[in-house]
Amino acid sequence: MRFAEKLEMALLRSCVCVGLDSVVEKLPSSIQKDPEGLLQFNKAIVDATYDLIGAYKPNFAFYEALGREGWSVLFETIGYIRKVSPQALIIADAKRGDIGNTSKMYAHSIFRELGADAVTINPYMGRDSVLPFVEDPQFGAFVLGLTSNAGSVDIQQISTDTGFVYEHVVRKALEWNKHDNIGLVVGATKDVDMRSIRMAAGKMPFLIPGIGAQGGNLESAVMLNFNGQYVDALINSSRSILYASSGPDFADAAKQATLNLVREIQEIKSRI
Amino acid sequence: MRFAEKLEMALLRSCVCVGLDSVVEKLPSSIQKDPEGLLQFNKAIVDATYDLIGAYKPNFAFYEALGREGWSVLFETIGYIRKVSPQALIIADAKRGDIGNTSKMYAHSIFRELGADAVTINPYMGRDSVLPFVEDPQFGAFVLGLTSNAGSVDIQQISTDTGFVYEHVVRKALEWNKHDNIGLVVGATKDVDMRSIRMAAGKMPFLIPGIGAQGGNLESAVMLNFNGQYVDALINSSRSILYASSGPDFADAAKQATLNLVREIQEIKSRI
Asked: Is-above-0.90 flag for pTM?
């Protein structure tokens, strides 16, 4: 199935994306604090949330930090999602990008070996660092546009005669989007910027982190992206769902936090 | 030991860096074509070259592409280098970078779990994506400045009132360099650009890929960076060394190719 279709179907179910940024130190007391425990935690989170979400987004750093066993846990987590919820979109939050022959290897790793549907990509190295991820219309890439962190001012927000650097990235992403399988990562922390990037990006799908622990503005993200004209946005929440409770009820609490987010989004949409 | 000192000592031995971009398909006929064979190949390359080089640079994409076993091969390769040549600088060519708390996880993975000395970093997300990699003066980061691939025109070479985007990156890198442990990745494929980035970067160390298979200009790279004023540059070669022969003499051929590169650099230096 083409990525554009997979994304559309995921969004028909739910625009919520759960970021699987799981860390051993924050595992609930009922779970052993090691890579095995982390996998068990991820499985419980998936079981509790899969019928409320459109996508999962494991952040690779959190698995690589586990050392030797990290990639195994990542493989097992993705495999488990596929088993429990074959229709969930899996976005590898890997922020990869390198020269052409190297990006090709990363693409093989992420789509063919790990089995993700999409990946986050850093555009600093330009076209040949991005294109290997979107050559096959089955898979997609979310290119970093404007991120929600403090450092986004350093490079992304440099001003040029033809707009900010991130606007150049948006234009390039539109140009590279031959198979309708490129989206943009756009942080939810700045209203004004999200409006400007949405204007530049047209109907290109957004992946919006920064809701929840990072303090992003859910209301304006929803208002801007679900106004009937633009409907392709995944809203990611990680820590607020994963760590909704540190007790043995963590899975129920994660389910409740996800449901609350779904309802909150519904409520905002109803006011558009 | 501080990274600045590790790098200085590595450069006193040799400015050659061998890129361990090993792929199963290109393994010599005498070696089995699987992850185990790839590790065996890496070990033979290290045995053949360690007394001629200053650094090794495994490119993570090539290990991740091996699937589940990839990270194990990476761990074993780094462990083997440490055993055979404790003084060799190990640069994790991972091109990582994410929001602060995530970059911290990547830094833990690369320095503490894998045991590398330095990492390549993509600066698009700005300060909090870079600083976690250079907080500890023992470890270093090479920030992507101007790369040698075709796509470098797309973002890096966007022109602004105060220079190209890559010049902004250089200025930021200088600003972030409190512990003398930041360097820049500068492709060897464009003479003029290397001169301009060297002027902007002062004495900041360069990691120069693009020599050999990518067709970079060794002569101008050496002329510019080893003229008595600037001496901090590592010159990377990958494919021309790894695949110097596809026969059972691959290790000898790799040694000879490394030696030829060392001699060629010496010869150019002697003409400065």
From this structure: yes
